[in-house]
Amino acid sequence: MNAVDTNVLIYAHDPRDPRKQAAATSLIESQSDGALLWQVACEYVAASRKLESQGYSLEQAWQDIRELRSVWTTILPTWRVFEKAETLMSSFSLSFWDALILAACVEGEVEHLYTEDFDAYPSVDGVAIINPFASAP
Predict the structure, then answer these.
(1) pLDDT tens digits, residue range 108-136?
(2) CA distance 125 to 137
(3) N or C terminus: fewer CB in 10 A for the chain?
(4) Residues in Cβ contact with 134 at an 8 Å cutoff, skipping those fewer than 6 apart
(5) For the sheet containing 127-130, what is the strand order?
(6) Closest to 12 (Cα-Cα) out of 48, 43, 41, 38
(7) What pLDDT does 3 receive?
(8) What is the pLDDT confidence band of residue 53, given thresholds at 50, 70 and 90?
(9) Domain boundaries, the chain
(10) Are 102 and 125 in contact (CB under 8 A)?
(11) Is-contact 60 28, C-beta < 8 A?
(12) Count of alpha carbons within 13 Å of 4, Cβ hemisphere only?
């Protein structure tokens, strides 16, 4: 199973960087076994407001989440995720929010997390971290 971070979902709807938008859109559409992390869904709805000046509405963000939820597995928070996040924070010097995303991936048996935020770590606890924009300038 594969998961995408909030930044990937945002770039898919942000026309200001056409290369990243194309890469994000292609990645999202190719995920037949995708995982929607609860935290990512929450962050996405909140962060999508930054795209209002680009013509993207909050209603569209909610609709996108509903669509993803209907085709991807949703990984909900648990206390085990919270406890794993504590371990990851100290082991990898991660922020709480980044550790929580990775802990949810570990708990949900996600194999690949696509994000531009974890370049320092190619893998954490069996989760391969891939920057889908690494080749985009």
Answers:
(1) 999 999 999 887 789 999 999 999 998 74
(2) 29
(3) C
(4) none
(5) 73-75, 34-37, 2-4, 112-114, 127-130, 123-124
(6) 48
(7) 97
(8) very high
(9) 2-77+110-130
(10) yes
(11) no
(12) 27
Q: What is the pTM of this model?
A: 0.92
Residue 127 tokens, joined:
């989760």
Q: Which residues face 10 on adjacent strands?
A: none
- State the CB neighbour count (10 A cutoff) for residue 11: 25
The CA-CA-CA angle for residues 101, 23, 66, to 5°, reads 55
11-38 pLDDT, tens digit each: 999 999 999 999 999 999 999 899 999 9
Length of the chain as a residue count = 137
pLDDT digits (tens, 9 = 90+) for 83-111: 999 999 999 988 999 999 999 999 999 99
Q: In whole angstroms, what is the distance from residue 131 CA to residue 117 CA? A: 8
**Residue 13 phi, psi (nearest 5):** -120, 10
For the record, the structure tokens of 69 come out as 């939820």
Helix (H) or strand (E) holding 2: strand 2-4
Residue given tokens 């954490």 in the structure block: 124
Q: Strand 2-4 to strand 34-37: parallel, antiparallel, or no bridges (unpaired)?
A: parallel
